[in-house]
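pasting for the record
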Amino acid sequence: MESINGDGVIAQARDLVEDYVKAEIISVAEPSTGITLAAVRRGNDVTVLPPSTFDPYRPQPLFRTGSAVMLSLDSLIEHANRFKDDDSVVFADDSRTNPSIIVVLDYHRAGAAADPRFGKHRSTFTFPLSDEWKAWNDKNAEAMGMVDFAAFLEERIIDVLYVEGEDDVSEDLGRLIDTLGGRDTIATPNKLMELARGLQINEAAVVQEAVNLASGEGIVRFQSTHTDEHGAPIKVPGLFLIGIPVFRNGPLYRVAARLRYRKSGGKIVFWYELWRTDRTFDHAFKESVERVKADTGLPVLIGKPEA
């Protein structure tokens, strides 16, 4: 019987396997366009190499890709104007908590029969809500004790507006002011500071009476425990106006705030209610979007682009 050379069989098997799994660069034609693509074949497996594999060796990339994150509306407009074409599109998300704009610079060509594009070159801007807008909205309708409420008023008093008799207000705001007793009932910054100081003085006092008057104001009488005070009544205005930007570094918008209070036992809590901030936000967002539309000449869609 002829002997078997074990080493020879192993060597042959090894050579056969190496030949089978050896990587081989081949060309593959893309069926719809006929474009030749590079691929690696190992045995029966073929892996097409993405074009990005060769990007380090190209003098320039094949396509523009990536999302530039802009930190101001001016920069978004400048970036869009730098790279836009006739088919670029602006998408505006009007979320009141996270508003944003995305410009898809290489959006699909217009028309059902037109050429599609990748939509991977974008400019984005997330509207930063102003510190003032966040501060007033965070405390909106939150009941506070006298001292906490007074401290908040003092901290934000710079936002409170002086309203002259001839100042123009919107039609809706004008109706609200008239309903609450007219412009004489609108608190000035000085009036609010007087209220804050009065609340601090009467911190430990017992509330004798809390009355809403027909004029829109209220009167709170205290039985004072302070030796130098006599429980003098404090007038509580029914309304004040603030001037704050919706977005950081944006224009100021006039917002009405109604003052509220409630007696609970011998104590009293205060809060304010901002009036129709939804309209104020929508107006500020619309103005920003209209500016982008006018300065870039691009169509604006309310929504989000395809992922």
